[in-house]
Specification:
Blueprint (H helix, E strand, L loop, with lengths): L11 H8 L3 H8 L7 H14 L5 H8 L4 E6 L3 H6 L1 H16 L3 E6 L6 H9 L5 E5 L7 H8 L3 E4 L15 E4 L1 H14 L5 E5 L5 H13 L8 E3 L4 H14 L5 E4 L2 H13 L9 E6 L2 H4 L7 E4 L2 H16 L7 E3 L2 E3 L5
Parallel strand pairs: 1-2, 1-3, 3-4, 4-5, 5-11, 6-7, 6-8, 8-9, 9-10
Antiparallel strand pairs: 10-12
Helix pairs in contact: 1-2, 1-3, 2-3, 6-14, 7-8, 9-10, 11-12
Length: 341
């Protein structure tokens, strides 16, 4: 009878005997060490599975000097995190990729500046190997807190700040926000639309600024009255759309900086008797299926691989933990044409 069925927890020695290799070989394979030939790795993994061996976390930490945990810091209040599918998709990508590295996700969110001390204590306490932080605002103190804690970090989104001159470049993952916005406006112009409005995201975030810049690239002499501020929420999109219709009732197209705001804009357009896309063409940004599949008509939008970017953040962090340089990554965007434009 194997140790896994006799009621005794399998040991490294038991795995080694079962696989016909040394205890040191089993230890290197289990703890992610190098220098073991592929056939032996396969034998050890098979023995681990057959015996039901579970590595001792404390012992493993002594060998790898890692905790097997990564902090995911979202610089938004709780209601945003659980109401915006963007965060759900990105965290899903992060979680799935961390699983492949046998690492745990520790979720932290920031309701306000009062949470900074708590996060600083946690990061500085050596509980995690690294951190992933996204949705930061330009005046956020989190980058400074992370630097002081000396925790390797990868950011989601192009940073709106620069680190100290004597430190490596900030590692981050982002999509081509500016190029995606240009594609959206270019598409609306190609349909013959001449009064193209824009609903921005919060302009203390680089993604919103980059999308506004992309809009202006295509319309350098555009009417300022055709730009209204939003906050990446459906209600802010509805308010901005109402404002735009008061300012410029003759507008014939809208580019909203995310899908939630586009959904809010669509609701107001329909309430005010505007047909979409016949009277007003509409384009969003993100391609969040949980949003675009619920709109009528279906929402034309700019696609970014949100879950894939979460996975990339993890890979960059793991390279950093292994001592490799982690350069910023910009992923492509793609216009998805549907019925709203």
């Amino acid at each position: 009878m194997s140790e896994s069925t006799s009621g005794t927890r399998p040991t490294l020695e038991a795995v080694a005997a079962h696989a016909g290799v040394s205890r040191a070989t089993v230890s290197r394979v289990v703890n992610g060490g190098a220098g073991v030939r592929a056939p032996l790795v396969e034998k050890v993994r098979k023995a681990v599975e057959e015996l039901g061996y579970i590595p001792n976390h404390a012992a493993r930490s002594l060998v790898t000097r890692r905790n097997g945990a990564v902090a995911v810091i979202i610089a938004e209040p709780e209601f945003r995190i659980f109401s915006d599918p963007f965060f759900e998709q990105q965290v899903r990508g992060i979680s799935r990729e961390l699983t492949s590295y046998d690492a745990q996700l520790v979720l932290l969110w920031v309701e306000g500046p009062g949470d900074h001390d708590r996060i600083a204590r946690y990061l500085g306490g050596g509980h995690v190997d690294g951190a992933l932080a996204f949705s930061l605002h330009n005046d956020d103190d989190l980058p400074t807190i992370v630097r002081r804690a000396q925790v390797p970090t990868v950011y989601g989104g192009r940073p709106g700040w620069t680190g100290p001159a004597d430190e490596p470049a900030v590692a981050y993952v982002d999509c081509d926000n500016r190029g995606g916005a240009r594609s959206a406006v270019r598409h609306l112009r190609s349909l013959g639309r001449r009064r193209v409005a824009h609903i921005t995201g919060p302009l203390d975030q680089t993604s919103a600024m980059d999308r506004l810049d992309g809009y202006r690239d295509e319309l350098p002499d555009g009417d300022p009255a055709l730009v209204a501020d939003g906050a990446f929420t459906e209600e802010s999109g509805a308010r901005a759309m109402a404002t735009l219709l008061l300012r410029r009732p003759d507008l014939d197209a809208v580019f909203a900086a995310n899908d939630l705001m586009a959904a809010g804009a669509l609701r107001v357009l329909r309430e005010q008797g505007r047909r979409v896309p016949e009277d007003v063409a509409l384009v969003g940004f993100d391609d969040m299926l949980s949003v675009v599949e619920g709109t009528d008509p279906a929402l034309t939008t700019v696609h970014q691989d949100i879950e894939g970017m979460g996975r990339l953040m993890v890979r960059l962090l793991m390279r950093t933990l292994d001592g490799e340089a982690a350069a910023p990554v910009i992923t492509p965007t793609e216009l998805i044409r549907r019925a709203s434009a």
